[in-house]
């Protein structure tokens, strides 16, 4: 399995896998309930991860040169 | 006369002007009309793909779901983000295959991969059944938005008539080009409105986000977490995973994706699209503000939360603006859905049945189908009824039934035969229909299962039936082909 495929799994595992642990009432982070904050955090991390995937994926370079 | 009416009318004129402009100087053949000649760059594709989720459902339904049940509404933001990740790997091979073989629809893709016109027709029927409820939903939203923001001056039915006529006209005229141009206007407008409302309202009523959440937590603590049963964490995870896999098989999105000029366009978009889903956060904030500020909306009335709260807070001109933007969020997705249903019908039902001589006739058939589909949907909205509600519940689970044989068809050596694919889809669709109409599921069949299993998404059961039938029929039909047709193949 290539690194870009492994990286693609990370958002799934992080966002969904962490959900049972952050589903608690009462805690707030940056003004948001903990579970909502967790999801927002992973949305942003996902964008970062996909930027890395885009940068290291050789397919994107091939098309540029052609 | 109130000022909001003028603003609503101005938006309508603007949409029409953009659609006419978009069609200018283009030969509208089938490929131009339905996938924009496969020439769209990153920005248009971004707006089409992103725009398709930002519909009236998100605008009204997103805040409405927060108002009604709270945290479970987050699942939309989760599945969208993850669907974009999945698309990075899924879309490029699809795009290349479609480009090579001149395919413009999901049903065309099936017909070509499995070399079966009949399978293409089955997929087209499933696709249309899954699309029409979406058109209905948008029209219904349009009726609500216009009647509310015109302070009752225009009735919902009248608004839906006007909207249907406008959208039918511009889809027939400029196809996906029109949708792309209006999507540009729509997205700029909706972002401004949603971000403004999502920031202003919590500060206006509570002095900030955290005080707002704290106030909701004090009165309705269950609103801020996923419940222990029903829409629990288990429900969220299973629903998100299923939705992610089926997301791009929705015929409209599939078509929009084919409009890209290179696969790199989607890859690049997967970086920005997740960030774009954060717009939903502001919709959620509006929904939470409404929980305590406009109490007492029951059931489906929850969808009025955003509009009611706005009307009680702002001057008429601002309401007109919100209404105009709301109109756009209804009409732009409707145009893509109509275009999709028309293309599916013409390309994969009309063409194989009547075998017309020219491509031009197919394009005419697609355009003729548009008003028919539009006004049928309008009829459904006006008459309402249980059938409509059932169809809405089913639509996404229907599309999901295309997933197993679709993913198998992307494998280098596809183990599934056309009979396996067709019967698997049919079995899955039948299961979805049965479970929805008879209102049964895992919980009624096996009451002793653990709660986490009972809360799994109902589509999962249909999917399991689908996969079993697909695998069994494929094994069987492959054997009979090998036994009887050694000499014929080749």
Automatic annotation (TrEMBL), chain A:
Provenance organism: Brevibacillus brevis (Bacillus brevis)
Transmembrane portions of the chain: 34-56
Keywords, comma-separated and alphabetical: Membrane, Transmembrane, Transmembrane helix
Domain of life: Bacteria
InterPro entries according to UniProt: DUF3311
Record carries keyword Transmembrane: yes
Protein name (record): DUF3311 domain-containing protein
UniProtKB/TrEMBL annotation, chain B:
Bilayer-spanning residue ranges: 38-60, 72-91, 118-139, 151-173, 179-201, 232-250, 271-297, 317-341, 362-382, 388-407, 419-437, 457-476
Major localization class: membrane
Superkingdom to which the source organism belongs: Bacteria
Cited InterPro entries: Na/Glc_symporter_sf, Na/solute_symporter, Sodium:Solute_Symporter
Coiled-coil ranges per UniProt: none
Classification via Pfam families: SSF
Gene3D superfamilies for this protein: Sodium/glucose cotransporter (1.20.1730.10)
Membrane topology annotation: Multi-pass membrane protein
Keyword Transport: yes
Places the protein is found: Membrane
Keyword annotations: Membrane, Transmembrane, Transmembrane helix, Transport
Family according to the record: Belongs to the sodium:solute symporter (SSF) (TC 2.A.21) family.
Protein name: Sodium:solute symporter
Organism listed in the record: Brevibacillus brevis (Bacillus brevis)
């Amino acid at each position: 399995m290539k690194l870009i495929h492994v990286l693609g799994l990370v958002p799934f595992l992080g966002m969904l896998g962490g959900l049972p642990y952050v589903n608690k009432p009462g805690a707030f982070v940056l003004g948001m309930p903990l579970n909502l904050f967790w999801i927002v955090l992973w949305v942003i991390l996902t964008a970062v991860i996909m930027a890395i995937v885009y940068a290291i994926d050789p397919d994107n370079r091939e098309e540029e040169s052609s | 006369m109130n000022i909001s009416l003028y603003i609503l009318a101005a938006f309508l004129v603007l949409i029409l002007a953009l659609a006419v402009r978009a069609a200018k100087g283009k030969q509208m053949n089938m490929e131009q009309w339905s996938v924009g000649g496969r020439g769209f760059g990153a920005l248009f594709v971004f707006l089409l793909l992103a725009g398709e989720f930002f519909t009236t459902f998100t605008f009204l339904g997103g805040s409405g779901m927060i108002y009604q049940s709270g945290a479970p509404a987050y699942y939309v933001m989760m599945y969208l983000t993850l669907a974009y990740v999945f698309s990075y790997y899924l879309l490029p091979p699809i795009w290349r295959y479609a480009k090579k073989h001149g395919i413009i629809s999901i049903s065309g893709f099936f017909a070509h991969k499995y070399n079966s016109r009949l399978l293409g027709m089955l997929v087209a029927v499933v696709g249309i059944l899954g699309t029409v409820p979406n058109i209905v939903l948008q029209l219904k939203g349009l009726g609500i938005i216009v009647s509310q923001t015109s302070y009752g001056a225009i009735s919902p039915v009248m608004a839906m008539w006007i909207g249907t006529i406008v959208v039918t006209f511009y889809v027939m005229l400029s196809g996906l080009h029109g949708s792309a141009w209006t999507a540009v206007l729509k997205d700029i407008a909706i972002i401004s409105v949603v971000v403004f409302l999502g920031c202003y309202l919590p500060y206006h009523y509570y002095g900030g986000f955290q005080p707002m959440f704290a106030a909701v937590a004090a009165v309705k603590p269950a609103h801020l977490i996923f419940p222990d049963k029903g829409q629990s964490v288990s429900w969220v995870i299973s629903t998100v995973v299923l939705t992610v896999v089926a997301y791009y098989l929705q015929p409209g999105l599939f078509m929009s994706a084919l409009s890209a000029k290179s696969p790199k366009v989607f890859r690049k978009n997967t970086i920005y699209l997740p960030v774009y889903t954060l717009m939903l956060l502001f919709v959620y904030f509006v929904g939470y503000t409404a929980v305590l500020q406009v109490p007492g909306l029951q059931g489906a009335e929850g969808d009025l939360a955003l509009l009611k709260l706005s009307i009680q807070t702002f001057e008429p001109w601002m309401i007109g603006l919100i209404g105009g933007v709301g109109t756009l969020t209804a009409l732009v997705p409707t145009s893509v859905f109509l275009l999709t249903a028309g293309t599916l019908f013409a390309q994969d039902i009309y063409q194989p049945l009547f075998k017309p001589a020219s491509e031009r006739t197919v394009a005419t058939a697609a355009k003729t189908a548009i008003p028919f589909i539009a006004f049928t949907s309008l009829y459904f909205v006006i008459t309402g009824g249980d059938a409509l509600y059932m169809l809405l519940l089913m639509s996404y689970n229907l599309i999901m039934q295309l997933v197993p044989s679709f993913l198998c068809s992307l494998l280098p050596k596809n183990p599934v035969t056309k009979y396996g694919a067709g019967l698997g889809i049919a079995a899955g669709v039948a299961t979805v229909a049965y479970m929805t109409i008879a209102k049964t599921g895992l919980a009624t069949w096996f009451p002793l299962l653990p709660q986490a299993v009972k809360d799994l998404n109902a589509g999962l059961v249909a999917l399991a039936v689908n996969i079993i039938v697909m695998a069994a029929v494929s094994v069987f039909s492959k054997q009979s082909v090998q036994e009887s047709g050694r000499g014929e193949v080749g």
